[in-house]
């Protein structure tokens, strides 16, 4: 069985990253960031959040579907609005039946999302960090506090262009009025 990345000594991590960088031609610090992206995704999808979040965007096209080959430093997640605004939905239907209802749901979701991230998502990732004994921090960010930033202690650093952070971006699915949606609707 393969040894966990996080159980390796710092020296072994550096050696593994340097070997992988030489083999792939990718910078070691970006390979390390990729390890953290995969780790945080596994934490989310091995928890009860798996039924409430959908992994989307370019990172999913690269990691899951292998449609594109690119480096990712953020994780785009769509949440089930029934988790945040069930009281605004007609018979539990997440598709608004009017522009007025869409505005009410949007307002409720924007208002409730930071608390939902703080209460539902952050503790799951924090518990996983503690379980493995990882020294990393979690911070809400963004104008609407709709992002969760995982800052990790890097064993390899680059030019400073890419920080040792993973950004989890939470957005709602687009329903009904997709023409007016910019992939961050509701």
What does this structure look like?
- With 186 residues, the chain is α+β, with helices and mostly antiparallel strands.
- It is 42% helix and 15% strand.
- The protein has helices at 10-24, 28-45, 57-63, 82-85, 99-132, and strands at residues 53-56, 74-79, 137-141, 147-151, 165-171.
- Helix 1 (10-24) crosses helix 2.
- Mean pLDDT is 81; it is low at 176-186.
Summarize the structure.
This protein has 186 residues and is α+β, with helices and mostly antiparallel strands. It has helices at residues 10-24, 28-45, 57-63, 82-85, 99-132; strands at residues 53-56, 74-79, 137-141, 147-151, 165-171. Helices cover 42% and strands 15% of the residues.
List descriptors.
single chain; 186 residues; alpha+beta; 15% strand
| Radius of gyration computed on alpha carbons | 18 Å
Tell me how many strands there are: 5
Q: For the report, how would you describe the main beta sheet? A: 5 strands, mixed
Compute the number of helices.
5
| Helical residues, percent | 40-55%
Poorly predicted runs: 176-186
The helix-strand sequence is HHEHEHHEEE
**Global outline:** elongated
Head-to-tail CA distance between termini: 44 Å
Give average pLDDT, whole number.
81
> Strand pairing plus helix content: what structural class?
alpha+beta
What fraction of the residues are assigned to beta strands by DSSP?
5-15%
Order of strands, main sheet, comes to 1-2-5-4-3
């Amino acid at each position: 069985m393969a040894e966990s990345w996080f159980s390796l000594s710092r020296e072994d991590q550096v050696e593994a990253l340097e070997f992988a960088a030489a083999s792939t031609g990718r910078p070691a610090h970006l390979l390390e960031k990729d390890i953290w992206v995969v780790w945080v995704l596994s934490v989310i999808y091995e928890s009860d959040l798996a039924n409430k979040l959908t992994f989307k965007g370019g990172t999913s096209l690269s990691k899951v579907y292998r449609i594109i080959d690119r480096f990712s430093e953020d994780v785009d997640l769509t949440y089930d609005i029934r988790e945040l605004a069930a009281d605004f939905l007609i018979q539990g239907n997440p598709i608004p039946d009017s522009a007025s209802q869409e505005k009410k749901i949007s307002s409720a979701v924007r208002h409730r999302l930071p608390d939902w991230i703080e209460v539902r998502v952050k503790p799951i990732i924090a518990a996983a960090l503690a379980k493995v004994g990882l020294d990393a921090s979690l911070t809400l960010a963004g104008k609407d506090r709709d992002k969760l930033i995982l800052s990790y202690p890097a064993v390899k650093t680059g030019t400073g262009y890419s920080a040792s952070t993973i950004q989890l971006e939470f957005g709602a699915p687009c329903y009904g009025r997709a023409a007016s949606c910019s992939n961050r609707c509701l």
